[in-house]
Amino acid sequence: MSGALGPYGMQREASGTAWQPDNSEHMGVMVHRGDWMLMGHAVLNLVYDHQGGDRGDDKAFASGMLMGMAQRSLGEGKLQFKATVSPDPLMGKRGYPLLLATGETADGVEHLVDRQHPHDFFMELSASVSQNISPESSIFIYGGLPGEPAFGPPAFMHREAIMDSPEAPISHHWLDSTHISFGVLTAGVIADRLKLEVSRFNAREPDQYRWNIESGPLDSTAARLSWNPTAKLSLQGSWGKFKEPEQLEPDVDQRRWSASALYATDIGRDWKLAATLAWGRKTTSEHGHTYRDDAFVAEASLKKDGWTVFSRGEVTENRELVEGEDDHGPAYRVGKVSVGAVRDFQIANNLSIGAGGLVALNLVPDALEQLYGSRNPVGAMAFVRLRVN
């Protein structure tokens, strides 16, 4: 099957309009109904989460997503509709414990700190139209409410190297938190293995009301250049000017940069390797001062015979870990290394059940040791999952 945005294989397309390697694993069940090709994919995780140290907590929760897509030919291109919803709001407004994670709010008053926020029920409701302008080139328009603008790598739950982990990255708000933006319009041009696209979008992060569809002005801009030099590799560099992205900082704009490399290949008989390297930077200016905070991520997974082993290492410079401090106080450099595995069992056509777990080692500086009770507090998750793919 060809992609929705251009004349290439659909495996290249990931979340929003982002690209991944052409060798990426195809996810989803496809059927044809008349002129339409329909695809569905679902994953439901039931997770028990333990985060150690003085700022840790325990929680059982459900997470995942249900995605549907409808595509048909239109002239010399494609028309596509996508919808993705998530059970995340069922875990409650405060999300789940995750040491060193920050971003968004549970009550509209205080930041979530050492917790991962739940994603909104509506993760994507989008449409796109493309037209081929040569055998290897196309132009396209994409719109979503919500949708994902042209910034950063694919959202973490779509990156093959780490999609099997139920743990969100602490770098989420540097790289891919825009994957739920309430108002996106993107236009792009594709020339074989190159793609240039520009978005106008609403950059305000979702508020504490997780079941509704919000709206706002398309007052922010992002641009992304993507290149798939080989079937195994996908590269992107992106820039964005974000208008008041933080609900609790209504007068503060951000500029963000991102660069990433995604890799996917078969190695040996029935072995599949995937990897990610990514960097993101948030820049804010306030009261005559400019603040630049970076995040770095490395991810990898190895699959064979129903087994998946996955890992992630991250470093972020975070100004929100100490409640009560000025949001533009010191940036604490913190890190996290996690490793886990899951075993899936096929129980029917296109349906599997799996069980797995992970362990994470958190790395905090001397200045935060007293708050966390350790330089290296440990987190762990055990989970079962149901997948339709």
Protein described:
With 389 residues, this protein is mostly beta strands. The chain has one domain (10-45, 63-335, 361-368): Porin (Beta Barrel). Helices cover 3% and strands 57% of the residues. The chain has 2 helices and 19 strands. The protein has helices at 172-175, 366-372; strands at 29-33, 36-51, 58-74, 77-85, 96-105, 111-116, 122-134, 137-144, 184-191, 194-201, 220-230, 233-242, 254-267, 271-286, 289-304, 307-318, 332-348, 351-363, 378-388. The strands form 2 sheets. It has a 16-stranded antiparallel barrel. Strands 5-6 form a two-stranded antiparallel sheet. A hairpin with a 2-residue loop joins strand 7 and strand 8 (137-144). The longest helix is centred in the C-terminal third of the chain and has 7 residues, at 366-372.
Features:
Porin, mainly beta, 19 strands, globular, 389 residues
